[in-house]
Amino acid sequence: MNDKVESRQRRARKSRVRMRTARVTRLTVHRTPRHIYAQIIAPEGNSVLASASTLDKDLRSGATGNIEAAAKVGALIAERAKAAGVTEVAFDRAGFKYHGRVKALADAAREGGLEF
Fold this sequence. Notes:
By secondary structure, the protein is an alpha+beta fold. The chain has helices spanning 3-22, 57-60, 67-83, 101-111, and strands spanning 26-31, 36-41, 48-53, 90-92. It has a four-stranded mixed sheet. Helix 3 packs parallel to helix 4.
């Protein structure tokens, strides 16, 4: 595997171990060059409580790999999380740097009412 990918996965593993021991609901983010995905995962890690991505029909029109699209996904995941009864989460950036699209998604989720 690529060294860059291995390094990202190692960083992700370290933070996920801490979140699992704390037994908290987590908001995890995954990004690709074209899309961005977000999921609210239960503390046990065995079920997804809510999800949103740029693949959703209402977000698919227009550009899907930019900061504006990431902000829309953040607002949508916050709305769906509140509908599922989740207000407090831990932010799992999956080893990605906290800037650009990942930061835009997190900021929009905070504005939408999620606390982390």
